[in-house]
Design goal:
The chain contains 5 helices and 29 strands. By secondary structure, the protein is mostly beta strands. A hairpin with a 5-residue loop joins strand 3 and strand 4. It starts with 92 loop residues before the first helix and ends with a helix.
């Protein structure tokens, strides 16, 4: 049978869709028999008798592949069917009774042959077209999976090693951040070069007559009548008796807590002033927070209510002392008995050294500290502290931020020299409380102590006598007292050694008197009553041998010039309008015309002294010597 149709491309299973003209039905000899519908190669292609079902063989274009069993290839009527009876597969009795019947020519029906289903062709029958076949699986390498495996191969870090280095604390130089400027030198005049002189002379000759004419007009003018020329710099200052108030400094947070200025100190350059805040009038306030503040007076835009640096301290600071050569280092003594050293150039982490609370630490408030050069190394300094526990301790900076005790002294009642009449000590009292300290400007081992008993003591660091005390200490304590002076009527709050005479010193106490002593005799050379209240501080002038200043409990500062009067002050300056006490004052050793004073209101005032108190008169040192000799005789 020859059919017409279009040639189709092979599909994925190797078969062609559609009708093929003159196609033969190939039969693979090695295929398994199975259920099929069709003819053998020699069979008649006519349909089964009595049936209108027409089956057309299709050639297998790829014999080695599995046939496509797509049912769509075998559906639909033939375009030219031959007439015949219809074959009803559901009702025909022959098909039902003989399911293995074969409608095609052959030797005879066999099981599974012909138009009915069956297991396969019988003997002598031609194999059918459709069959089930099982083939061994073929392995085809996948290019997609291979490429996927390559792309998903795990990768390890292939970066080069990173070199690291420690960048902290690699500075080779250390500079101080404080201002250390020298006084500005006057600018030198720049003269015109030699080539400009002829042109300048010619210009002056041309304008000379005009300038003279204009100056004559000004001379006859009355525009500036009533005005006087002031050649001094205009400042918003307050003048009192030749003394000018330059700055009024305060820290509002300390004032809000009603803290008082307990001490003031100038740094090595004279441009920075520091003050400590606490309270001297009442109560046990050792746990009350206090402050150490500094102001740089040479800084532009100085804010008097905003310190340049502020350090918070857990206990009240009773005294301060700047380092003699390090402008930013300042030492302080606390109410708790501890001694600390701060670096004010780094307020966020300012603490350098501290004594800690050990057996060597003071057990009472520390009322004064002082820097001393080491005997063998004048550029290195030690720190001396005194307290009302009767101990005088010498500290040196050690590792890990600690101050280590190097020497110690103790004042015991039994070892006080009895060269003058003293009050009988209270029964059971053994220690002598120390409230003030001053070192001699001529002998670094000699110092004066003020005591709670009111008598000054001359002491030495070179003594070898052991102190008769049971106070705990890691080092043996020595007894420094060598001489006792006539006492005040109450405790001594301040002592000051003369920078111009090796034997003279001043003392001030609660009796309102200032005593001028010579270290050669017990009785004072001079006694001045300045106040009916306490005197808290007294200081010699660093530039005038006969000038000193005192701070009183009546709110004023009194300046004495012994060349003018030995009985009354030359100038009295009112620091506090409500007569609140002035607790401390210090002369500036670098800018000698400046005097700092702190009061009970929490205010530090910077006073500028006139030349009357800063310029030394002729033979003034000789006058001081003569005064000491006359009184002593």
């Amino acid at each position: 049978m020859e059919t017409a149709g279009r040639r189709a491309r092979p599909n994925s299973r190797g078969w062609r869709r559609g009708k093929v003209r003159g196609a033969q039905n190939p039969r693979r000899p090695d295929s398994d028999p199975g259920p099929h519908l069709g003819w053998g190669p020699d069979s008649d292609p006519s349909p089964c008798p009595g049936s209108s079902l027409h089956l057309r063989p299709l050639p297998h274009p790829y014999p080695d592949q599995e046939p496509n069993l797509d049912p769509g290839l075998y559906q639909g009527p033939s375009p030219d069917p031959e007439p015949g009876p219809d074959l009803d597969l559901d009702t025909d009795p022959d098909l039902i009774s003989n399911p293995g019947r074969d409608f095609g020519p052959g030797p005879g029906p066999g099981p599974g042959t012909g138009c009915g289903p069956g297991p396969g062709p019988g003997p002598g029958q031609a194999p059918g077209m459709l069959r089930d076949e099982t083939l061994d699986g073929a392995t085809v390498p996948s290019l997609w999976r291979g490429s996927l495996d390559i792309r998903s191969e795990p990768k390890s870090c292939q970066t080069a090693s990173i070199s690291t280095s420690e960048s902290a604390c690699q500075a080779r130089e250390q500079v101080d951040a404080e201002v250390q400027t020298d006084p500005p030198s006057p600018m030198a005049l720049r003269y015109a070069s030699q080539q400009d002189i002829p042109g300048l002379a010619s210009f002056l000759h041309r304008v000379e007559n005009r300038i003279i004419r204009e100056l004559d007009k000004n001379w006859q003018s009355h525009a500036f009548d009533g005005f006087e020329v002031n050649w001094t710099e205009q400042q918003q200052t307050v003048r009192r008796g030749g003394v000018t108030c330059q700055h009024t400094l305060c820290y509002p947070l300390a004032q809000a807590q009603k803290l008082q200025v307990t001490s003031v100190s100038w740094n090595a350059t004279g441009s920075v002033v520091a003050c400590s805040y606490g309270r001297l009038d009442d109560g046990d306030w050792s746990t009350e927070k206090s402050f150490v503040c500094t102001w740089n007076l040479d800084r532009r835009g100085l804010n008097p209510r905003q310190p340049s640096a502020v350090v918070e301290v857990p206990s009240s600071v009773m005294c301060l002392a700047f380092h003699p050569t390090q402008p930013s280092h300042v030492a302080g003594g606390l109410y708790s008995g501890e001694v600390l050293v701060w670096d004010m150039s780094r307020p966020e982490d300012s603490l350098l050294w501290r004594t800690g609370m050990t057996d060597d630490t003071h057990t009472d408030p520390v009322y004064q500290v002082a820097w001393l050069p080491e005997p063998r190394h004048s550029h290195r300094f030690q720190l001396l502290s005194v307290s009302t526990d009767g101990k005088v301790l010498l500290w040196q900076a050690a590792g890990s931020g600690q101050l280590q005790l190097t020497e110690g002294f103790a004042l015991v009642v039994q070892q006080i020299p009895r060269n003058t009449k003293l009050k009988k000590p209270t029964r059971g009292e053994t220690e002598v409380g120390v409230t003030a300290l001053a070192f001699s400007s001529f002998d670094p081992s000699l110092f004066i102590l003020g005591t709670e008993g009111g008598f000054p003591l001359k002491c030495s660091t070179a003594v070898e006598v052991a102190a008769l005390t049971r106070m705990p200490s890691s080092l043996p304590l020595r007894a420094p007292a060598q001489f006792t002076f006539s006492p005040h009527g109450g405790p001594i709050y301040s002592v000051s050694c003369s920078p111009f005479h090796r034997n003279l010193f001043l003392s001030a106490g609660t009796d309102g008197h200032i005593h001028l002593y010579s270290m050669l005799q017990a009785q004072p050379l001079m006694s001045l009553q300045l106040s009916h209240k306490y005197l808290f501080s007294v200081r010699w002038s660093p530039v005038r041998p006969l000038v000193f200043a005192a701070a009183s409990g009546e709110g004023d500062i009194q300046l004495f010039d012994l060349r003018k009067s030995s009985q009354k002050p030359t100038v009295s300056i009112k620091q506090t309008p409500d007569e609140s006490p002035v607790y401390c004052l210090e002369f500036n050793l670098q800018q000698t015309h400046l005097l700092a004073a702190g009061d009970a209101k929490g205010v530090v005032k910077i006073w500028q002294l006139s030349t009357e108190f800063t310029e030394q008169a002729s033979r003034e040192t000789e006058d001081l010597d003569q005064l000491a000799m006359e009184v002593a005789s």
